[in-house]
Amino acid sequence: MTSEDVYTYIRAQIAAKELFPGARIVEDGMAVQLSTSRTQVRAALRRLAFEGLVTIVPHRGSFVARPTEAEIRAAYECRLLIESETVRLAASRITKGQLDRLQELVRREEQAHADRDMQRFLAINDEFHLLIASASGNLFYERFLRELSDRCNVYLLFYDRFMLTPPEQSQALREHTVIVQALTQRDADAAVTAMRRHTAETLEQLYF
């Protein structure tokens, strides 16, 4: 098993809530469990640490990261400011092709949610938000949001209610639909309102 395989396995364990924030990941035990070497496990852990999913403490070991509530709220405050502006700009600049793509992404999100595939859902969710940022025409907003999205995905993997929420009750899916409708109508005020509600609701749906 390669380090990529180990990385994928541990990340999936975190997404499935099999590994909780603060849990220790023992290199020897993981290597035996996956029939691989400690070198492959160590490489996977370093990659997960770079992404913020794992904390490596010298002389103590590796632990699933434990973001604080204050850190998470600060990140979403930044996200609310950035995405309010990207969606406002996108309302007047988005193309028909981009609108069609957003509608397709909402459909794919629905399927990922129905399949209970959180990692696929997060990847599609990222594409949805980054496409709006791209449609804004501002490369700096897009760059900032990409970095912020990577961080927020860590929080969602740890604390989101995805696995507990039936698809038909998903607030995110409904809000994405409303955002696309506002953009289709070129209604900047409605798009901003919908995006701000969506960001605030995403934060409030997290359980700490």
From TrEMBL:
InterPro entries the record matches: GntR_C, TF_FadR/GntR_C, Tscrpt_reg_HTH_GntR, WH-like_DNA-bd_sf, WH_DNA-bd_sf
Transcription regulation in keyword set: yes
Keywords recorded for this protein, A-Z: DNA-binding, Transcription, Transcription regulation
Gene3D superfamilies according to UniProt: GntR ligand-binding domain-like (1.20.120.530), Winged helix-like DNA-binding domain superfamily/Winged helix DNA-binding domain (1.10.10.10)
GO MF annotation, one: DNA-binding transcription factor activity
Residue span(s) of domain HTH gntR-type: 1-67
SMART domains reported for this sequence: FCD, HTH_GNTR
Protein name: HTH-type transcriptional repressor RspR
